[in-house]
Structure formats: structure tokens, C-alpha cells
Amino acid sequence: MNSRKKIPMRKCVATGEMKPKKELIRIVRSKEGEVSIDPTGKKSGRGAYLSLDRESILLAKKKNTLANHLSAEIDPSLYEQLLEMVEKENHSTK
User: What integer pLDDT is reported at residue 28 of this predicted model?
Assistant: First the structure.
């Protein structure tokens, strides 16, 4: 019997790379059309995954990738929040 646990993989909407789910952040659009960051990955609604690095976030913002995937208007403050999360992540690993 295979005892190794299967690692859930998800695709980053900005870069198209397949990565383990834990390395990505989920952005979710609720039924009401509200778009928010979902750190738990468990909120109900339409989700899109983004790599937690500055380049991926800026690429998604430039190409309007999240708006296309979630079929919703993305507030610029959402990208600011994501960039802040990346900064915190980088500071905590150093």
C-alpha cells in the first residue's frame, strides 16, 4: 500500500505553473460578487489561486487575470493586500 500522502496541486492563474496548494493563495468571489482573499482555502464561492510572490501578483494585476477568472471587478486594494502578505512572508523567512 502506498503510504505517502498525495499533495494537492493547483495552478497559478498568473503564471500557469502547477504548485502545491500550500504555496498558493486563494482569491474567492462569493455569490454576492464580493471578492476577497481566502487564507484558509475553504470559503465557498468561485476561487482562483495565485503564487505568493511579487512578480505573480503584479503580472495578474497587469493582465487583469483575476478579474477574468472570477468574472468580477477587482478592487486595487486587493492587490495591495496581497503584496503586503508577500512582504510579511519574506520577512518571516529571513
Answer: 97
10: pLDDT confidence band, cut at 50, 70 and 90? very high
Alpha carbon distance 13, 23 (integer Å): 13
- Domain of 67 in residue numbering reads as 9-93
Q: Look up the pTM and report it.
A: 0.87
- Domain containing 60 — which CATH number? 3.30.1230.10
Q: How many domains does the chain have?
A: 1
Q: What is the spatial distance between Cα 77 and Cα 41, in angstroms, rounded to a whole number?
A: 20
Angstrom distance (rounded) from CA 57 to CA 92: 19
